[in-house]
TrEMBL record:
Taxonomic lineage: Eukaryota, Metazoa, Chordata, Craniata, Vertebrata
InterPro entries: GH (IPR017853), GH13_cat_dom (IPR006047), Glyco_hydro_b (IPR013780), SLC3A2 (IPR042280), SLC3A2_N (IPR031984)
Composition bias, Low complexity: 31-42
SMART domains per the UniProt record, alphabetical: Aamy (SM00642)
Pfam family, one: Alpha-amylase
Annotated TM spans: 89-111
Keywords of this entry: Membrane, Transmembrane, Transmembrane helix
Keyword check for 4Fe-4S: no
Region (Disordered), start-end ranges: 1-42
Naturally occurring in which organism (per UniProt): Phascolarctos cinereus
Record-level GO BP terms: carbohydrate metabolic process; L-alanine import across plasma membrane; L-leucine import across plasma membrane; phenylalanine transport
Record protein name field: 4F2 cell-surface antigen heavy chain isoform X2
Coiled coil: none
Basic and acidic residues bias spans: 12-26
Gene Ontology CC terms, in alphabetical order: apical plasma membrane; basolateral plasma membrane
Length: 542
């Protein structure tokens, strides 16, 4: 056969795939026999496979099976049908009904939700404790015959900032010759305390620590009476007005005068000085101090200044009387004060340990920090500094015990009585002071909340501090010498307060550490050790 004929035979419509070389296991049983020609000249083992050469046929088939949807005319015909029109209206109606329902629900929630009380206007002196440093020398741990300086006070600002106090009440430090008005200069710092430049540096450094400086301008402070004779009052008034203007404009945040019970016609002068203070800056404060403990005498001065420190609690503290009497004293004072902002301190100038037994110091810290008003402390109260109980310790201005060698190498002091000894002790009075001061500045119920006194046994004084929907606090104080089980319950209160005591509350702190902080304690049978104070918290429930 010629080569051209062979090529013609290969070009057929169907392509042949010859499987001539079969695997041995797939050979036919008669593989040994000579292959016989199949009909039509085909060989044994040849498989014919059809492969479509024209891909256009496959594309046409796919196009024929693809869904093209309805045409525009068909859609319009269906959309206009009665069934579809009714469906559309039903869906639209359901949408608007759902929207109106959600709107009505939101309105009901807003109307029924308890409204937040408007926050009262508060100045910085309402927001934390004040810390009195009457003697620069004593605060710096120096005896009275040594020099205390403004620069030395500046070096202690880091420590003071850990106490979280809002201001230092400093001095008096101005020039004063006892009972000599002509040689009393309220505008000049006594050189034994430092210079005007050092005072300015102290102001700037304290400001960086967020500590305000209040300057005591009691004019005749080296005298027993602290003031000059009544016939010199007009001259004193002139000097005071000049000094107020000078120091407030120089950067101090407020002025204090103490022993105003010895100032003739104080109720006339104090309002004038108060008005002058606020005419310079509304954010400046005037503080008056009185040695009076009689409530009527105190109330006569309460409206004349921004803050009034008094000796109201002094007699009670000396007696260490019952919780029932303390409850009556506090309730009477708050009731008589009405809406006026109060302050709480052991006395107008003294130290807490001078009036309170050592076993009750922690309890009184808790009391002063949690009553409505501004707590005022003297330097050393945070460590329980005692007056004239140690050799070498002066009576009127006790030396601050920074460490066991403060009083000199010959006078050893128990380390637990010093700042150094208490600084890292979580059970110390200093640690308690810091924790209470921090809470007082953060919690709204303690800042400006209502006070509700709870009925208790005679040795106990208990109350709740609460503000709107914020966390509430329960304070329980045992002034007695016996362990008590407080059975706390709410007295009748206005329905607007919506205040109910829970069965249990969480312990924030104990002044004696008799309970673990964070533990949950029952309020119907709450164990309180003698001389112990407890601070507990519970959440608002709508």
């Amino acid at each position: 056969m010629s080569q051209d004929a062979g090529m013609d035979m290969a070009e057929v419509d169907m392509k042949e795939v010859e499987l001539n070389e079969l695997e041995p296991e797939k050979q036919p049983m008669n593989a040994a026999a000579p292959p016989s020609a199949a009909s039509g000249g085909e060989k044994n083992g040849v498989v014919k496979v059809k492969v479509a050469d024209d891909e256009a046929d496959a594309a046409a088939a796919a196009a024929a099976s693809k869904f093209t949807g309805l045409s525009k005319e068909e859609l319009l015909k269906v959309a206009g049908s009665p069934a579809w029109v009714r469906t559309r209206w039903a869906l639209l109606l359901l949408f608007w009904l759902g929207w109106l329902g959600m709107l009505a629900g939101a309105v009901v929630i807003i109307v029924q939700a308890p409204r937040c009380r408007e926050l009262p206007v508060q100045r910085w002196w309402h927001q934390g404790a004040l810390y009195r440093i009457g003697s620069l020398k004593a605060f710096q741990g120096q005896p009275e015959n040594a020099n205390g300086s403004l620069a030395g006070l500046k070096a202690h600002l880091d420590y003071l900032s850990t106490l979280k106090v809002k201001a230092l009440v400093l001095g008096p430090i101005h020039q004063n010759l006892e009972d000599d008005l002509a040689k009393t200069n309220l505008l000049q710092i006594d050189p034994t305390f430092g210079s005007q430049e050092e005072f300015t540096q102290l102001l700037e450094a304290a400001k960086k620590k967020n500590i305000q400086i209040i300057l005591d301008l009691t004019p005749n402070y080296r005298s027993q009476s602290s003031w000059f004779p009544p016939n010199q009052n007009e001259d004193v008034n002139g000097k005071m007005k000049e000094a107020l203007s000078f120091w407030l404009k120089a950067g101090v945040s407020g002025v204090q005068v103490h022993n105003v019970q010895n100032l003739a016609d104080a109720s006339s002068f104090l309002p004038r000085w108060n008005n002058l203070t606020h005419s310079i800056d509304e954010d400046k404060v005037l503080i008056a101090g009185t040695g009076a403990s009689n409530l009527s005498e105190i109330l006569s001065l309460l409206n004349e200044t921004d803050l009034l420190s008094s000796s109201y609690l002094e007699d009670f503290e000396r007696r260490s009387s019952s919780g029932q009497e303390l409850k009556e004293l506090v309730s009477d004072y708050l009731s008589a004060a009405g809406g006026r902002w109060c302050s709480w301190t052991s006395s107008q100038v003294g130290h807490l340990a001078s009036y309170v037994p050592a076993r009750l110091l922690g309890l009184y810290h808790l009391l002063l920090f949690t009553l409505p008003g501004t707590p005022i402390f003297s330097y050393g109260d945070e460590i329980g500094l005692q007056v004239a109980t140690l050799p070498g310790q002066p009576a009127e201005a006790p030396v601050m015990l920074w460490d066991e060698k403060t009083l000199g190498p010959s006078e050893s002091v128990n380390l637990s009585m010093t700042v150094q000894g208490q600084n890292n002790d979580p059970t110390s009075l200093l640690a308690l002071f810091r924790k209470l001061s921090d809470s007082r500045g953060k919690e709204r119920s303690l800042l400006h909340g209502d006070l509700v006194v709870l009925p208790t046994q005679d040795d106990l004084f208990a109350y709740v501090r609460c503000w709107d929907q914020n966390e509430r606090f329960v304070v329980v104080l045992n002034l007695g010498t016996m362990r008590q089980e407080a059975e706390l319950m709410m007295p009748p209160v206005p329905s607007s307060q919506k205040l109910e005591l829970p069965e249990k509350a969480t312990l924030v702190l104990s002044t004696q550490g008799s309970h673990q902080e964070g533990s949950v304690l029952p309020l119907h049978k709450l164990p309180v050790a003698p001389g112990e104070g407890l601070l507990l918290r519970f959440s608002y429930v709508a």
